[in-house]
Amino acid sequence: MSGPVHIGSTAQWNSLLSGTSVVIADFYADWCGPCKMIAPHFERLAKEHSRPKKVVFAKVNVDDQSEVSQMNAIRAMPTFKIFHNGTCVETVQGANPSALTTAINKAVQLAAGGRSEDLFKSPGRTLGGGQATGDYGWQFGKLLNFIIMAIGLYLVSLFSAHRCVPGSGKLDVQPQQAEEDAANASFRAAFCGEQEE
């Protein structure tokens, strides 16, 4: 039982994939907090389950081995990928110890002769839930319609409020205009020195 192999080149990565039944890879970055948090758990599992040529644990620094990271479409760290005979059969994204342990236990069964189709029926796990359901566009459309309606109602009420004569239930511009003219004349007389008409 040994710890994980640190991948130093694309050639080493390809050799490991082609010469090992099951490869469990940790794609990490030195600056990644969640990577540092789950690293001891990964190391412990590596020491417990490593079997030469059967189950090998690998650590791939995404900054140092960008080509290997790109080949495996790594978009988040940490990302754990399980390969069986060179093909990725499971992906776990994020620092999720229970999901990682479950996936590794299944991978160990692969090395003992299990079939990947039976053990890994899902396309992988992603920390934080599943894929978007696709109705966000519909929800956004409903929100946009509500905002447009609210703005329209506000503008209608803003521009029509000065035309309503209180208590009469009728629209009338003239009394309101007369009050505004009288108020303006008083203002000009008081502050500008103009005579009221």
TrEMBL record:
UniProt keywords, alphabetically: Disulfide bond
Organism annotation: Escovopsis weberi
Residue ranges occupied by any Thioredoxin domain in the UniProt entry: 1-109
Gene3D superfamilies: Glutaredoxin
The keyword Disulfide bond is annotated on this UniProt entry: yes
Pfam families with a match to the protein in the record: Thioredoxin (PF00085)
Domain of life: Eukaryota
PROSITE patterns per UniProt: THIOREDOXIN_1, THIOREDOXIN_2
Family: Belongs to the thioredoxin family.
Protein name (Swiss-Prot/TrEMBL): Thioredoxin
CDD domains the UniProt entry points to: TRX_family
